[in-house]
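Structure tokens please, single chain.
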Amino acid sequence: PPGPAPPLGYPSTFRQTPSLDSVASSGAELTITGAGFTTDITDFVVSVGTLGCKVTAATASSITCTLEAGSAGVYDVSVVVKSLGLATQPAAGQLTHEVTMTIFSNSPSEGSMGGGTTVTVNGQGFPDTMEGWTSGSVSIDGSECKVISTSYGEFECITSANTVGSRKKRAASEISVTIGYASATGGSFNYDASLTPSVSTVTPTTSAIMGGEIMSIEGTAFGYNWGKVLIGEAECTVL
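Here you go.
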């Protein structure tokens, strides 16, 4: 039901129901047009699905707000003018805004063809929980990169062995992300043969199931800073 009539002498804009016309975006900044707004930026609650949008400027016909980070998806836009009520949607239907998934950069930019490199990918629209990656995947040059941590603006993944095969020429590939209907490509990572250790011999090739024996591994490009040596899923301590 309608609320009490405003005091006499108030401008007509304070007596009308606010209404929405359109929404446009530039990065995280949204501009919502309509009618019957106030000019007090504290007089608004702007919601984009479950995401908040902090109002930074307002006129009688336009609102500018900064959208908080969120996962990729299409969200309904609603505006409450505290002093007037919920703004009506356009006759054409509910206003929506799409949060896109984008890759900005990654580090490092190269690693072993045998996999095992932890890559940090920066961007927007990623899931903020590991459960969000259940239907998602990350690949580099056709090889999986297994996600190990995530937030809206960054995730980490560990590369697997390059499936394309050995190549001597350096060639960078984009990182590809797919989650449900959303996808993104960007960044740059190179599987570099010069950074790839190789194993030539392992002695001995059998041991007792309780472990504790000494294994000698020979090969090339092992370097001085060791990570891990694994036999199956069991770690072999480097001596």
